[in-house]
Amino acid sequence: RLLSAIKKFRRAALLKEDYVENHRWLALALLRYGLHEEALANAEAARRLGPVGWEVHLIVASCLTRLGRDAEADEAYRRIRLACPGVHKHIEFERGKALLAAGRYNEACEAFKAVIRADKGYFYARHYLAKAAVGARDYHLAIWALKEDRMLEGYIINDVYLAGRCAYGLGKYELAEKLFGKAVGEAEKGGWKPQPDWLHYLGRAQWGLGKRTEALANLEKACDSRKDNVLYARWLFRAYIAADELHKAVLVC
């Protein structure tokens, strides 16, 4: 759906290059898809055509963070805060998401914690804090964020997966298998495909429990879903080697 939207917005931007909204929506879609250079170019085009709201300036700052252009990103965030003092927590939340996407997990944690200090009821900040904390391998912080998350908003399936990551990171493979299995089962029950990460970590938890047949099946499903994922391929390769399935290991390479 996102790719389809990008194609439509690209056509619209070509047909009417001087229309701000075409570039704004295209920049937002590209940012969400991970095409940061093109997203930045379109957000800057929207700014030149202007006037635009703070959201477009935030897209620019988010792209700069994701591209590792920190000095420019910091200046962009500073300008947005000065221009829009009433939206500081939203700016910090988006900055945290950009840092998370860039793999800067500890910095992302600090950004999300700042949002929570400003607004204890900011539900999504807790969810993203859990994601960043898992990335930083601070599983106790992630567990705290997940508990707070559920107290405020109740059960969501992504939280089950994140709880599974915490259990796996702490070496509790039985609990991890149960949680990852629940996430996968809920997705299948709802008629949509489980996320490849859920299958991958389910396989890893099962491997830790010595359930090689089930583990290989889930590691294979994850790898089939994302053939470009190096982590998935590495794990599947090692699993095949350990299971003496050398002919399959060669195919992964």
Quick structural summary:
The chain contains 15 helices and no strands. It has 253 residues and is mostly helical.
Q: How would you characterize this protein structure?
A:
- Residues 11-81 form the Bacterial transcriptional activator domain.
- This is Bacterial transcriptional activator domain-containing protein.
- With 253 residues, this protein is mostly helical.
- It folds into two domains: 1-83, Tetratricopeptide repeat domain (Serine Threonine Protein Phosphatase 5, Tetratricopeptide repeat), CATH 1.25.40; 157-253, Tetratricopeptide repeat domain (Serine Threonine Protein Phosphatase 5, Tetratricopeptide repeat), CATH 1.25.40.
- Helix content is 80%, strand content 0%.
- It starts with a helix and ends with a helix.
Fill in the keyword field for this structure.
single chain; Serine Threonine Protein Phosphatase 5, Tetratricopeptide repeat; 15 helices; 0% strand; globular
Overall mean confidence score, pLDDT? 90
CATH homologous superfamily descriptor of the largest domain: Tetratricopeptide repeat domain
| Named CATH topology of the largest domain | Serine Threonine Protein Phosphatase 5, Tetratricopeptide repeat
H-E order: HHHHHHHHHHHHHHH
Number of strands: 0
Structural class based on helices, strands and sheet pairing = mainly alpha
Number of domains: 2
